[in-house]
């Protein structure tokens, strides 16, 4: 079964927020925070969704600050996992970052989120450090990861 990647629309944000709430690894932002990122952001922002069977099955949000792209959030619905959606979203965010002049992409990920860490490593991101006690509910360290240069992703 194939999926479609596209730019998120304001009408998608409620589904994005629901998907994030169903994913304990994703940031638990309010709908207003998602709206602010998509509609009112002062910096270039990439917000893509993956559609599977006409439903939002995943999303990625990345922001460009100077020449650094921050991967803010990426999530895939549990029923849609293991279909390449996460990799496609991540690769699209990397391409977006490169096409917008970013020199690097960086992120934080929960130390226990081994599937995400593996996904990031497969895309070429390297472990760069640890932020002790970065996450709460539950308390957990963040693994810092990044990739540069992004020139290979500018296709």
Q: What is the N-to-C succession of helices and strands?
A: EHHEEEHEHEE
**How many discrete structural domains?**
1
Give the total of beta strands.
7
So what's the CATH class? Alpha Beta
In angstroms, what separates the terminal alpha carbons? Answer: 25 Å
Structural class: alpha+beta
Name of the CATH homologous superfamily: Gcn5-related N-acetyltransferase (GNAT)
Estimate the global geometry from the Cα principal axes. Answer: globular
Q: What is CATH's topology name? A: Aminopeptidase
**Using only CA atoms, what is the Rg?**
15 Å
Number of helices: 4
Lateral strand order in the biggest sheet: 1-2-3-4-5-7-6
The low-confidence runs, each spanning 5 or more residues with pLDDT under 50, are none
Mean pLDDT: 91
CATH A-level architecture: 3-Layer(aba) Sandwich
Note the main sheet. 7 strands, mixed
DSSP strand (E) fraction? 35-45%
Please estimate the helix content.
Answer: 25-40%
Quaternary assembly: single chain
């Amino acid at each position: 079964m194939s999926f479609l990647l596209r730019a998120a629309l304001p009408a998608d944000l409620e589904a994005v927020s629901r998907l994030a709430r169903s994913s304990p690894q994703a940031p638990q932002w309010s709908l207003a925070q998602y709206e602010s990122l998509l509609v009112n952001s002062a910096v270039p922002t990439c917000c893509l969704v993956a559609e599977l069977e006409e439903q939002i099955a995943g999303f990625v949000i990345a922001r460009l600050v100077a020449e650094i792209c921050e991967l803010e959030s990426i999530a895939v619905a549990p029923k849609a996992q293991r279909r390449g959606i996460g990799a496609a979203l991540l690769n699209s965010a990397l391409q977006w970052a490169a096409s917008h002049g970013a020199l690097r992409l960086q992120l934080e990920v929960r130390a226990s989120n081994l599937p995400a860490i593996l996904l990031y490593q497969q895309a070429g991101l390297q472990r760069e450090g640890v932020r002790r006690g970065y996450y709460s509910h539950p308390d957990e360290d963040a693994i810092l990861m990044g990739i540069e240069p992004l020139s290979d992703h500018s296709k």
